[in-house]
Each structure stands twice: as structure tokens, then as C-alpha cells.
Fold each of these.
Amino acid sequence: MSRIRVVFDQLRQQGRKALVPFITAGDPNPQATVPMMKALVEGGADIIELGVPFSDPMADGPTIQRASERALKHGVGLRNVLDMVAEFRKTNTTTPVVLMGYGNPVEAMGWEAFARRCAEVGVDGALTVDFPPEESGEAFQHLARHAIDPIFLLAPTSAPERIDAVVAAARGFIYYVSLRGVTGAANLDLAEVASKVAAIHGKTTLPIGVGFGVRDAETAKAVAAIADAVVVGSRMVQEIEKSTEQNVAANLAKLTRELRVAMDSIN
């Protein structure tokens, strides 16, 4: 059984929701990534979404774009990110890690080599933003062969046929993009999110995570009331931007703990 499924099963039994913070690997520097991952877990993260730096992150807003730029200046690429996961796994064998990125780096590495290395280092899922299920059949066969969960995005504008395609292809969980726009956008319509999440739940038993608009503890609590997981990205990266190298891990742990406490208060 995959680590992702184990975590969601455990949380369901506890009546709790998953907290999924996002950071970009290599930001603010390569040496900080694994300590930050550990700090997220210390603060209460259930799953870590680890961004693979990319030069043209089309789905990401300015905050996460800057994170990619900082990481790329340090020369961090996909193989480095996988090595970071391997280092993290030396002390943590239970927290799921999902890689979030774009198709080009994986295509350059080769899907079979990527999937094999993911399995070797302990990656649990892969979200490739620009590879929808209609275009990813052979690519994701390699993931399936190595028991890596393909994670897909759905949006407010997703047509019924797209929802059906994602439900059929996805494993682990489905990531619902709560806003029409890029990461870090504002004006989250909770009523619309609740309606969409309920509609998707009507088609699948997979957990549904919601992201692209969770900016603080209050929003995290509200989203936790209507979804199975809360994904927090731009807010995490903002915390990294305003921190020093000496206190960034502690600050991330504190922020994660605040979100965790707020989400647990819905019970």
C-alpha cells in the first residue's frame, strides 16, 4: 500500500484532514531543502509537495516563479531533487513526498529512468502540470510500473469529460485548483469550492486536496472543512523569502504548526 493511501486512511480514522505544504527544492539554497522538509514534518505536515525548479513554470504565480529562479541559480535540477529526497528518506520513511513540476525535465531524463529513480529514493507521487491524462498514457505507465502515484489537477473550468478522465487515471489523491489563475491568487470562493469538491467526490473515492488560494490559518481551516487535504504553496514560499538561512527551518515549522492547529480545530 502506498504511503499516500496509508496517510489518508489514518487521517480519516482520526477525523482529520491532510496538510500538504509546498516548497521548491533548492530554494533558498540546496543545503536548506532537507532541513526544511524535516521542519515541515515537525510542524505537522502529512504530505510534502516538493517543487522541481523549472525555467517556465506556467501555472505558478510570481512568488513560486521567484523560488524556481533562486533554485536554478544554484544549478538545481531534477536529479538533484531526487537526491534530496533520498537524503530525506535516511531519517524519514513514512511521510509521503510528491514531486510537482513540468514535463520537460522528466522528458529529458526519460520517463522510465525517472520512475525507477523515484522508486529508489522514496518518491510517492508525481504531479506534472503540463501532462494531462489525455496526453500521458505511455509516460504514466512507467510510473505505474514502479508504484508511483500520478497526481492530476482539476480546476473550476474543468469540463465533465476532463473530470472523468482525471478520475480514471489518478492515484493517491486529486488536486483541485480552487482559483481561475496561477498559484498565489486571491479571492477564494469557498461556496464554489465546496460545490466542485462535492461533485468530484460523487465520481471517485480518491481524496481531494484543495490549493491555489490558502493563505493563512483561517483559510486553511475553512478549506479543511470541505476537502480531504489542504495544499499550501505560495504562503510557504513567502515565509522562506522573508526568513534568513539561520531561521528559515524554524519559521516554516512554526507556520506549519499554526495551519495544523487551525485545521484540527474543525472537529
Amino acid sequence: MELLQNILVYGILGAIQGFSEPIPISSSGHLVIFKNIFEHFGWNFPKTDITFEVLVNTGSLLAIMFYYRKDIARLFVSFFSYIFKAEKRDAVLPDFRYCMLLIVATIPAAIGGVLLNDYIEEAFSNVKLVGCTLLITAVFLMLIHKYGYKGKRTKRKLNLWDALRMGCFQLVALLPGISRSGSTITGGMLGGLEQKTARDFSFFMFMPVSLGAIILKIKDFATPALSTLWLPYLIAFIISGIVTYLALQLLFSILNKHKMNYFSVYCLAMGLFALIVL
């Protein structure tokens, strides 16, 4: 009976992680809120559930990388072709430049993640803080809805300031409740980028930062909970990957329809729920 309960609870959390990773409603914030809700029903979790966190984040990362697999392969080949094959430099220069901007964009979050790791982990136990930060996410999304679609600059017009600005937004999104995709897309679109350029750059920024976070936590992967919860964890990993892939396509459809205000209203309601009820 306990095994079935764990499969159900962790499966739900895997689905929440998968859906809210690309969708701009904060996956980390929702995990904090729903764990708090489940604990009210007597379903307790290991206090340091690093294994679960690593697995569901890896599921989401793999799903996003699979979606962008052709672009990743092209950028990888172009980057090293520029370095090692002088005769191809002119042809691959745009992709090489894009890769360099991605490196710049990941620096703020990479530094912040290392220096502020203890404070960030402490924030994951504060559901009231998550309520406040979800209200900030609601503001970001309303700004996209109201002003974000005026940008016309395409991928070839990305510049250093775009990368730094979006990188700083990604640093802020280390706090649970601040949507990483929502904040970085806001930083891109309000800076004059068209929505496809901003969204794609946002998810390419996510990949190295997410991979780095997983590597930093892998040393703590084998927690005592793994021996008893390996099946619920595995199911959560699979669910998070599948749901992330589907949610990514949903996000792009909603962006194309200029309906980001839906998510803004949702984050406002969820933030108030966390502040008032939990």
C-alpha cells in the first residue's frame, strides 16, 4: 500500500515538474507548494530529497535536448569547425557567435549557483517566499503579454547585451517561484527580440545551467531514500520527461497566440494561495 502511495505521489510531482519546467509558472516553486500540500495529508518526504530533484530535472533536460536535437548537433559541429577548420569559418560564423553568446548568458547563473547554493536550498523550504516570487513571475508574464510582442530582432541580431540581460534574469530565477523560462523570455522580448528568438535562446541557456546543477548535486545522489523509493523515482523521471516534451510544444503554441496573460493570472492565484492558505 505504501509503495502504491509513493508511486502516486512521486508520479504527480514528476508530472508537475515536467509541465512547469518549460511552462512559465516555476517548476521549483510548484514542487515546494505541492510537497507542502501533500505533507498536510500526512505524506512526508525526505528532508534532503536530492535524488528525486536530480532525476526529475534530468528528465526535463533530456526532453528539451531531444526537442532541439537537430539544432544542438548543428551548433556543436559549427563551434568546433570554427575552431579547428579555418576554411569553414565564414560559413559557420553565425552559429559560432550564437554559441559564444550562450556561454556569456550562462555565466551569471553559473556563478550565482555556486556562490549562493546554500541560500537557494534554504529558500526551497519557505513556501511563503515561493508565494511572493510567484507574484513576481505573474508580473513578468503580464509584461510579455502587454509589451513583449513589439520586438522584431531575429537570431542574427542577437547581441552581447541580450545575452547578459537574459543571463541576469536567469540568475534571479534560481529562486523557487521565479519562472526561469518566464523571466528569461521576458528579458529577451522586452529587449526587442522576436518571441521565437527569445524563447529558443532561453531554452538553450537552460541546458548548460541545468546540466551544471545536476553535476554539482550528483555527489549527493545516492541518498538513503534511493534504496526504498527507486521505483517511484524512476516513474517520476519518465513522467517528467514525457510531460516536459508535450508542455514545450504547448508553450510555443500559446506564445504564438499571444496568450501569456493566462499564465500570469494563474501565477497570481497560486502565489496568493501559497501566501494565504499554506
Amino acid sequence: MSDSNSEFRKVVERVCAGSDEAAWELIETYGPHIQRVVRRKLNQRMRSKFDSLDFVQMVWASFFTEREKLASFTEPTDLIKYLATMAQNKLLQESRRRLQGQKHNVGRECAMIVGTEAESAYVRKSNTPSQIVMAKDRLEAMLHERSDRDRQVVELRMQGLTFVEIGKELGIHERTAREVIDKLALNETA
């Protein structure tokens, strides 16, 4: 047995005995081999979702759940082959989930186009307090020149009543209530 194999066996025995220091030594020594495999095999479309270290950590997490399996490795090359195979399997499993499944499929994602009205409506769902105050001021200015009935129509509409309900409440036709709101909207855009 060569010196490197005897050193390898000593580290393996310490890891199997539960030594955290030996486990870290194993990770530092053989982690780059896993990372190399991951970087070479990681699908291009998944690179925006995962870093190669994510898969390295997945491999080590699975590996250390079965520490007793480590005792079966007699040479470092056997361990490297095993870890590389684990990494490929993790990549394959995640690739199937992200490229073929429906829930997390990266192929179904689409970019939002900056500057469109749809985006601004998406981004800002509620008005800021200052926008609310400004809107109230504009409304008061518009209602200042209106009749009491028109002000009542607007107030009831702001409370969430339908035009039919406003008509019944004020004893007017629903079309009349609708016209009041429509005229105010026309004045606002003019």
C-alpha cells in the first residue's frame, strides 16, 4: 500500500469514527473533484438557478448520511469515482425536475419587458399616500362646482355602491348616476 493510500485509509477511519476534522479534511481534499464534474455537466439553462457549490453540498449531504459506506473505499480514486457518479446523479435528478416537470420548469419562464404598462401595473398595485392625497384634492376641486346630488353620487360610488344601488338610494335612475361619474371622468382626462 502506498503512502497516499495509507493516509487515505487513516482519514477514512477517522471519519467513520465520527471525527468532524477528518470529515472537513475529506471535503477540502475531494470537494474540488465534485465541483469540476458539476461545472462540466450542469445544464446551461439551470445555471441561473444553481451555483456549482449547491450540488457539491447536495453530494456531501447525501454522502455523509451513509458514513459506513465510506469504509468500503480502499483507494482515493474509488472515492472520487463514487462522488463523481453521485454528482452526475444529482444533476440528472434536478435537470429532470427543472426541465421536464411542470412546477419548476425553467423552460416555461419568460422575462418581463421593462417599461410596459403591464409591468408598471404589476409592480405597483397600490397608490402611495401622497398619490391618494393628490387624488382627493383633485376630486374635491372637481366636485366644488357640482350639485349636491352629484357629490352624493360620487360619495356613494366611492363607498362601493353600484349604479343601481345609488339610483335607489337617491331616487334617480341608474343611468343618471352613471352619467355623473362619466362626466367627472371626462373632465379629469381633459
Amino acid sequence: MFTKNQIFAAPLAGITDRPFRRMLRSFSPDAPMVTEMISCHSIVGAHKNCLRNFDNYADERPIGAQIFGADVALMADAAKILQDAGAGWIDINMGCPVPKVATRAGAGAHLMQDHKLAEKIMSAVVGAVEIPVSVKTRLGWDNEHQDWAELINIAADCGVAFAALHGRTRAQLYLGNAQHPDVSCCKIPVIANGDIRTADDLAGLEDLGYSGAMIGRGLLGRPWALAQIAGEKTPENIGAVVLQHLEYAIEYYGEKTAVPMFRKHAAWYSAGMPNSSEFRIKVNGIDNADVLKVAIQEFWGII
């Protein structure tokens, strides 16, 4: 069975921002986690409309900062910036399947099709920083091109410390069941990712050669999931958790941005509960933080 420091929080675009990571950290102080992906162009350009470009990670360790892009020099420069910002390691995204990243930008999952470019990027990033570098990838572009082992071993030759393997191809997006192949052929440790939500989902992964597990969508509305998998209890007062998350979001983004952004989190927290559909409809019409707090308090019966 994996220990706490072998169970990672995955990078989730638009979700694992600093407010959500604070919630994760409140339940799992020592769990390794990865930021949502950051564009190398955005961080090197210090784009002011993207708050995560200015996060300081010194108080979040163990944490890896994930970058994506196709420009070798910019990827190296972005890695250095994030190292200076306190990241514990740099993670290179080689698995994002969305078209604006994987096709139009030639980054993310596109690097599974261009191993030469992937090798140049990995070598440049490893050479640019003094902290470890990891990669996150998928089984391959599609069922006919499942060359994950080759790519991970190229990563090892570049000096990459470990890899996370999502058990789907790019063509699958997030559909179908994740498959976790035997990774004992890989030269570096591999972390399993995909459809891992409970402790039962860890069964057999060590026998397949995995060195840990990474939880992604299982975190939605469940920032205690890492702790729960490690054998700890679910919080009794979920409403208080939701309110704390909202406070962190307002503190980080400001009320105008935080309230509409938080609607998706409120929906995930309420999933499966009685009257959750009505609650989601109500929340989607709220723009005021105080009104949203009252709705949350009423739904979870804490007023």
C-alpha cells in the first residue's frame, strides 16, 4: 500500500488553483501536489491578468509547478522563474488533450507525437533548474500509437526524475475507463493517474510497477480525498469546508471574480445530496458573496 507521500494531487486546469490547494493542504499537510498548468509564454511574459503567474510556493511544499508550451527556451526560462518562486519540482505537461493546447499550440499531448521536440524541452528544463523535473503524459495519441514507454524512457535519459502516466490516450479525452499498464520496463518511477478515487482503486498498482498514485477528478468537491485514501475520516461539517474554500477564493481573486468562479465548486460539493439540483440552479444566479454564503449555510443546515 502506498504511503501518504506517494499519493499525489493531480494538476487540474481551472481547479487546482491556490485557494483549492489551501483546502487540500488543510486535510493533507504533507501530500505532494501539482499546480494547474501554467503557460510558459504567460509566466515568462508576467501577464498581469493571470494571478497564478505570481504565486509563491514556499509555504505549499511539497508542490510541483506544471508548465506547458512548445518553445524550448521559454520552457527553460519558465522553469527557472518557478524554481525561484519556491516550487519543489517542475512538471512538464505532455498529456493535455484539449485542441487549443495539443493541436493549435503544439504543446501538451502533441509532444507524444514529437519525441524529438519533447526531448529538447525536457533536456532544456532539466538543465535550467537545480530542482527535480517530472513529466505527466498519457498512453499515446490514440490506440494505434501507445508509445508511452518510449517517451518515459527518453525522459529518463534527459534526467527527468519521475513520470505520471494517465491511463487514457489523447483521442479518448476523459471518456472510457482508464487502463494502467505494467510500467516495470520504465527507467524512472511512474505514478499512476486516471480513475483513482478511493483506496480500493490502488489495488494492484504496486504489482504493476507503479511508485505512487495521482488523484485528479476524484478531488472535485472532495478536497479531503487524499486524506481519506490514506485512511483518515471525511469531515463531518462539509458546509464549513465549502465556506472556508469560498473565503480563500475571495481573498485570492476578489469577490467579483471569485463568486461566479466558485459556482462549479459549490455544485461539486453538493453532488449526490438531496435537493442538489435546486441548489445548483440557485447558486448559478448568485453574484454576491454574502448571498452565496447564506445559500451554502442553508443547504448544509448550519444556520
